[in-house]
Structure formats: structure tokens, C-alpha cells
Amino acid sequence: MSSLARRFHDETTHTPYSVRTSGHTLDWDVKPFPFKVYTEVPALPLSREVAVLPRPTLQVLASESAPAPRLTLEALTALLYYSAGVTRKKTYPGGGEVLFRAAASTGALYQTELYVAAGDVDGLPPGLYHFCPGDFTLRRLRSGDVRAALAAAAAEPALARRAATLVASAIFWRNTWKYQARGYRHLFWDSGTMLANMLAVGDALGLTPRVLTGFVDAEVNHCLGLDPMGEAALELVVIRPEGPAASPPGPLPALAHEVMPLSSAEVDYPLLREMHAASSLASADDVIAWRRATAPPPRAPQGPLVPLPAPARESRSLGETIQRRGSTRRFAHEPLSAEELATALWAAARPWPADVPSGLVDIYLIVNAVDGVAPGAYAFWPGHGLELIRAGSLRNEAAYLTLEQALGGDAAATFFFMAPLDAIGKAWGDRGYRLANLDAGVAGGRAYLVAYALGFGASGLTFYDTEVVRFFSPHAAGRDAIFVTALGRSARARDGVLVSNSIQPPTRRL
User: Fold this and answer.
1) Which residues neighbour 82 within 8 Å (Cβ) at sequence distance 6 or greater?
2) What are residue 240's phi and psi, to 5 degrees?
3) 8 A C-beta contact, residue 336 and residue 371
4) For residues 326 and 249, what is the distance between their CA atoms, to the nearest angstrom?
5) Cβ neighbours for 236, distance < 8 A, ≥ 6 positions apart
6) 136, 44 in Cβ contact below 8 A?
7) pLDDT for res 3
8) pLDDT at residue 249, rounded to an integer
9) What are the angstrom distances between the C-alpha of 49 and each of 52, 88, 157, 500?
10) Cα(12)–Cα(176) distance, integer angstroms
11) Which of 444, 446, 459 is nearest to 412 (CA)?
């Protein structure tokens, strides 16, 4: 890893000492508002009769649907809803309310925003739109087709022919309010978790989505009208079908739409902005050269492997899976089956369509309660099985490694996503740091999908970075801890929480 990315990673590492001495407290008076609201741009309400997506989740993850002949506003609405929409809410005694989104987010802070560059969408005029989950609307920020401008910024001519492109951005303060500069990692964990949904839903709708991680940052931010001091584009998702190429729009004027303030005060974290600037690309030639990098060579197992059963085939529908998604707050000490574990690992490790190779993270795990798999620490080898690193009950160790949270030890299995950051940095420079965290986010998001498709639970966790590496070493030598996802059966809370159905569920098929 280059010196800046390595310095950032090391300076934002959690240790038992740093956690106990940080002094950081949450200022609830300035907690950021969870939705970005353009106050003077007319809203285009989207239909709440959203498609139900009846195909089984595991079938969608295993194969694509037939290509859709057209992109309709109905399909685009479903894609937005199941990626970033508000799916339900919980009302607590006393009137407190929690809104659940389609995809998980660290601390339930939801700093990821979605923009739509629509060109050839039935029922939607060409233009650049912002999606607001709060009132389930689109707001047009630019009239006219901007796909050619994004195609030039991404050095991807095919983008100008695709029906639409979605752009995921992140509002820094919405996450750094709680997580400080370390929140930069979370931007990619959370957008990756959202992309796991978006890729699955896009495939179910026949839109064959593809992620672009390389682009000229300043040009995309300018197109979206973002101030990179506080919000920046992270990824582009191009969706089919293809048609005639959009005409170049000419120079795009600056946008100056009024936005409702997030909070009365914000705290700046220069290290985060320095990391993002260092990992930005300045020209289309830089993008092309960056994509030509060669991924680090794969490793091979160091010892005998424990076989796993084939992944499950039957599951809930994709629409129902996302509707039911939550983040488990308490795990029961009940076992998963070996098939359930194998399915989560299979989904997490599957490649996903992007402009650079996926599969940059390795999956290490602690098994606490899985029928047919002995408790212990393992490395997972896709298509082959588990390599035992340490045998025995390790619930206490799993809880300690996950920032001394009971969830890590109570889970049936806890996945630790690890990556060779120095080798990735050698290939892709500082922007490689984005890739590693994004890849882990997508993998964790797919594990979430499997958990709720098969009827158990999941939760993303933070961790003691160096302690995780030390625990899995010497096997994990040369790797860094990136992200953690715990899986298991939810323990039913008995706290009188009431579930409200005031968020209308999907009702129609496409």
C-alpha cells in the first residue's frame, strides 16, 4: 500500500488502548439528518406499488435473468427501493421511531446517496436526478442527457449507450459524526452493502448492472453538483439495455441548488479528505492506466481442507428477503447448518461485475455453532472448503476481536474479511484502498442477503485491527483486517417493541 493509504489505515486502527482513551463522545444536538433534501427543486413522487421480485434470492445470486428490452420507470423505481428505500419502521414505547432501509449501514447512519443519470427510461425525461428515500421521490437537478459526460469521466464509451447510470456518493459528516476519520472505511463498506442489493435486484430485473470504480472524480462530482469537501461520488452503476449513444452535452454549468443543512454544526476530519483526494483520478488517461493494473496473485491452501456441502437452492424471494432485512442485535446460541454456512460463504466470495477484478478480500472465520463443522478458526477457500487454523471453542476470542461486543461471540459464525493491502496498493495505488473496503462491503452485503433469504440473521461489526491479524497469523501474514460480519439465529427480544406497517410494502410484479 502506498504511504498515504498505509498511514491512513494505521492511524485509524482500533486498539484496546485507542478505544479506551479516544475521548470521543456523540453530540446528539448535531446528529446529522438522515436524508438529503433539495429545498427548491420540485419533487417527482415515485409509485409505492413496487414490484415484488418473486424469483428466489439464491437463484438470482447464481444466475442472471433474461435481458429486459426496455428500462421503465417502474423497474427503475424497484431498483431504487430495494437498494436504498425505506422498507419499514419500528415504533418504540414513548413514540421513538427507527426507519429500516433496504441495505445495512454502519451505525444506521445511511450516508450513501443515489443519483440517476437517466437517458432512455420509459416514463422519465432525460436528466440527472437525486433519489430521496425519505419521501420516495426523484428531483431533477439537470435537464437533458448527461450520460455522455459521465462516459467521458469514466473513460467508458458504452456508458453513453446504456439506458441509465446510477451514482453512489457519500456525505462524510453523516458517518464521521460517530466514527470520525475512520468513517472513510465505512463509506465503502456501506456503499458495497448497498451495491450487493443493487446488483442482485438489477439482475432480477434483467438490467445486467456493472460497477465502475474508476472515473475522474472532479468531473463526476461537478456533474452531480457536489462539494467534495463534504460529499463525493464513490461508484457508478451502469444498467442496460443499450440504445443509441447520447450526444455530448457540452460543458455542464455548475449547480447551485439549495440543500437543507444536515445539522447546526459539523466537525471536519482533514485526514479523511486527504485520503479521498490522494485516491482520486485526474484524467481519463489516468482512469485507463489505472484499470490496466494486475491483481495480486491468488494464494493456495497451506493445509488439509474440511469440505462443505453444496450451497442451498431454496430460499425466500429476493423482494421478501430485502423487506425482512435488519441487523441482528442479539444472537441466540443456536447452530446454523453446514449448508447455511456454505451458502453464505459461497455468496460472499462470488465475483461481481466491475471494471476491475473483485475477490480482493479473503474470508477468515470463527465457527462457534455450526452443525457438522467443529468449532474453531478457519480460512475459506472458494470452491474447496475450510482450512483449520485453530481448533476449539473461541466465543470469547470472537467477542474480544469484535471490539469486545457480545455479538461476535454469540454468533454462530463470524466472518473476518482480510486483504493484502500493501499488494493491492502496489497494483492500484491509493485508490486500491477504496477497492479493498468496497469488495469487503459487497461480500458482507451478500452474506446479509443469504442470511435473510434463509431465515437467520446478520450484523456488521467493527474490530481491533491488529488483534484480528495477530489472531489468524501466521496464516494471515501480509493481510489487514477490513470488515466483519457476524451470522446466526436471532434471539427474540421481549421489550415491547411495536412494528408499524405504515410503510407500504411492495405489491406488484414486473
Assistant:
1) 50, 53, 102, 197, 198, 201, 318, 319, 322
2) -85, 175
3) yes
4) 42
5) 150, 154, 159, 165, 166, 167, 168, 211, 212, 215, 220
6) no
7) 81
8) 78
9) 9, 14, 35, 18
10) 12
11) 459
> pLDDT at position 2, please?
63
pLDDT at 113: 98
d(CA 385, CA 363) in angstroms, rounded, equals: 11
Report yes or no: 449 and 57 within 8 Å, Cβ to Cβ: yes
Q: Do domains 29-291 and 305-488 have the same CATH topology?
A: yes
Q: Which cell numbers in the block locate residue 150?
A: 459521465
Q: Look at residue 37 in the predicted model and tell me its pLDDT.
A: 96
Residues 126, 117 contacting (CB under 8 angstroms):
no
CA-CA distance, 165 to 372, in Å (whole number)?
45
Domain ranges for the chain: 29-291, 305-488
Please give the CATH number for the structural domain made up of 29-291: 3.40.109.10
Residue 505 has a pLDDT of: 45
Residue 304 phi/psi, 5-degree rounding, is -65, 155
Task: Supply the DSSP symbol for 136.
Answer: T
Residue 93's pLDDT is what?
77
Q: Measured between alpha carbons, how far is 221 from 282 in angstroms, rounded to an integer?
A: 12
Residue with cell 426507519: 99
Strand extents, DSSP E, 215-257:
231-242
Q: What are phi and psi of 351, to 5 degrees?
A: -65, 155
Contact 469, 417 (CB under 8 A): no
Report pLDDT for 504.
44
Classified as helix, coil or strand, 165 is: strand
Where is 398: in which H helix or E strand? helix 395-401
- What number does CATH give the domain 305-488? 3.40.109.10
**Does pTM surpass 0.90?**
yes
Which residues are bridge partners to 166 per DSSP? 116, 237
Q: What are phi and psi for residue 3, nearest 5 degrees? A: -60, -40
Indicate the DSSP class of residue 69. Answer: S
Question: Low-confidence residues of the chain, pLDDT below 50?
Answer: 494-505, 508-510
